[in-house]
Amino acid sequence: MSGAALGLEIVFVFFLALFLLHRYGDFKKQHRLVIIATLLAWYLCFLIVFILPLDVSTTIYNRCKLAVNSSPAESNGSYVTLAPSKQKCFKPWSYIPNGIMPIFWRVVYWTSQFLTWILLPFMQSYARSGGFSITGKIKTALIENAIYYGTYLLIFGAFLIYVAVNPNFNLQWNQLQTIGIAAANTWGLFLLVLLLGYGLVEIPRSHWNGAKRGYLLMKTYFKAAKLMTEKADAEENLEDIMEEVRKVSESIKYNHPLRKCVDTILKKCPTEYQERMGRNMDDYEDFDERQNSYPSEKSLVKLHKQVIYSVQRHRRTQVQWQILLEQAFYLEDVAKNETSATRQFVHTFRSQEPENKLVQYFYTPTVEWYWECLLRPWFYRVLAVVLATFSVIVVWSECTFFSTKPVLSLFAVFIQLAEKTYNYIYIEMACFLTIFFLSICVYSTVFRIRVFNYYYLASHHQTDAYSLLFSGMLFCRLTPPLCLNFLGLTHMDATISHKNTQPTAYTSIMGSMRVLSFIADGFYIYYPMLVVILCIATYFSLGTRCLNLLGFQQFMGDSEMTSDLIDEGKELIKREKRKRQRQEEGENRRREWKERYGNRDDSTRNRVVHTDQKESSFSETSISRPLSKYTRSNGRTERDRIELLQDAEPLDFNADSINDDPLELDSGR
Around 9, how many Cα atoms within 13 Å sit in the side-chain half-sphere? Predict the structure, then answer.
């Protein structure tokens, strides 16, 4: 099994990242480079989280071997003896051979840092650029990132000059590398504690509220009112942008040098707008620079950027509105079925997507009723209690992990108890659950954050390229300090435990933080205690109340504005529900009519066609040759006759004279 666990987790994490990216991104419409870069960033961050428990168990085994192989006299050397010299060490099932983990961590860490600080910011600007060529987009991205990169180069250059001038510093390359890593981790830890303080409270509370049917339904009504406002705003914005595109398309004709740019913009517009503009265009007119003023290429680039943004926003709001409607209808069905005497779940509307036959076989209406109306609320309550317990343990450990005598961090106590018996499965499970819970608290907050309309991770393939790349940047910056914080909570980091023991392979690539003692002994120790204040602020919803005072509508039960939006959303859902019911009733009537009279209509239609053919053949043979000049040609089809009848104009009875001869009337017309 040597190295097999590492290989299995590498494959599993890849498919996990691919699944999440498929849920939020759109593989068909978005650029391949955006998909690849985001997938790589997510994959590396998830990989660090899943592989770190294997590094911990391997390190504990290596410490045991060193303790067994070293004599008591040698225990005062490089490593401290952790076990008696005659104790036998058991190799873990997931043991990774020496030399693999340092190389693995070095490749993963530096690749993620290259992505988050260099490649992904550049690709963000490239994706948002409205240029019409690769060269133009690259130029725009370089200009936008000049200040971003220049700031870092200025700070780093000033630091190098200070080190070179000051004789007290004699830094080598390894120490400079450690300082750079410490600076990146400090920035990440600053953001990590903010996100962690929110997630530790909001995740258990959201699951507890998930057991309240009335709460979920009221919140869905509130979301419907807000989303309808956003949807109307997106439609209005799209109409304004399309009007500008129409004016530009009419002014720039087919032989204008910028016509290719206009065609590129038109391809990004929705289909109905393309058809409308295509009907109103007249490309047979030549352009004249002396008579008309034409937009510049720079203004077309700006318009192209606006078209991409407005179309993406409009499509996202349309999809989210349909998803929210389905959620509201389902919650209303749950509220109705709770008082059902038959104990069978009845849906108001049929599912628009075909369900799996296997799911239909096991998930019957009776099973669905017991799960939705009886078991699910209790399951969510139990899960919320478990998550709240984990949150309390995390908060306690964050405030006490610096204490080594006695050991107050509960995670460190659990790991040290398992280390005495060398129960590697328990060690790996405890480490995995701990770091997985921390990751869920942090990453779920990243998925919930919405910075106006610039950054927003929307499911069902509705996330734009800019938001995907920005999420990759955040993950790459948050994951390294998250792992260091986990190693500190479990006292696997020598900087925290103050023991001269063998470090983990992950800690070894970070270097010794003693180069910057004020960070290692100050910021890393005391800043995580701020999570207590953030948890208290999240529990009392101070951030939500502040946003509500600033004019951003937030769901608050004691707010008059929230009540008004709930009533508005409820009326919107009722209107959409009536519309859906009318559509289904119409479809049912058409289906019943077709099933009842479909065969009869077909047989009647066949008899009528057969009779017409007989009459037409009889009339053609009975008409004399002299009258053939007054009749139509026999080669005319039935479609031509119908079209002539449809094109015939009604008689004008107000005219001075009426011509009774239809042939003269037709010739005159």
Answer: 20
* CA neighbours closer than 13 Å in the CB half-sphere of residue 596: 6
In-domain check, residue 535: yes
Query: Over the stretch 255-277, which tens digit does the pLDDT of each residue have?
Result: 788 888 988 999 989 888 888 87
Full domain range(s) for residue 105? 1-68+90-208+358-539
Q: Is the pLDDT of residue 33 over 60?
A: yes
Residue 415 inside a domain? The answer is yes
**Lowest-confidence region among 116-130, 432-446, 542-556, 571-585:** 542-556
Query: What is the CB-side half-sphere exposure of residue 2 using CA atoms within 13 A?
Result: 4
Question: Where do we find the tokens 């070293």?
Answer: 70
**Token pair belonging to 248:** 């530009």
CA distance 6 to 96: 8
Is residue 1 included in any domain, yes or no? yes
What Cα–Cα distance (Å) separates residue 15 from each residue in 27, 109, 479? 15, 20, 19
The CA distance from 320 to 493, in Å, is 45
**pLDDT tens, 51-103?**
999 999 999 988 888 877 764 544 444 344 444 444 567 888 888 888 889 99
Q: What is the pLDDT of residue 16?
A: 94
Q: What is the DSSP letter of 112?
A: H
Phi and psi angles of residue 314, each rounded to the nearest 5 degrees, phi first: -65, -45
Q: Mean pLDDT across the stretch 394-412?
A: 90
Structure tokens at 513: 């933080």
312: which residues sit within 8 A by CB, 6+ positions away?
464
Amino acid in the structure at residue 398: E
Res. 438: pLDDT tops 90? yes
Burial of 254 (0-12, 13-18, 19+ CB in 10 A): middle
Looking at mean pLDDT, say which of 243-257, 466-480, 629-643 comes out highest: 466-480
Q: How far apart are CA 442 and CA 49, in angstroms?
A: 12
Q: What share of the chain is helix, strand, coil (3-state, %, to 5)?
A: 75, 0, 25
DSSP calls for 316-340 = HHHHHHHHHHHHHHHHHHHHHHTT-
Give the C-alpha separation, 651 to 659, whole Å: 9
Per the domain annotation, does 473 fall within a domain?
yes
Read off the pTM: 0.80
Unique residue bearing structure tokens 């303790």: 67
Tokens 């050991």 belong to 407
- CB burial readout 156-188, b (16+ within 10 A) else e: eeeeeeeeeeeeeeebeeebbebbebbbbbeeb
Tokens of 641: 């006759």
Number of folded domains in the chain? 1
Q: Which residues contact 387 (CB under 8 A, 6 or more apart)?
A: 203, 204, 207, 437
Least-confidence region, from 82-96, 188-202, 226-240: 82-96
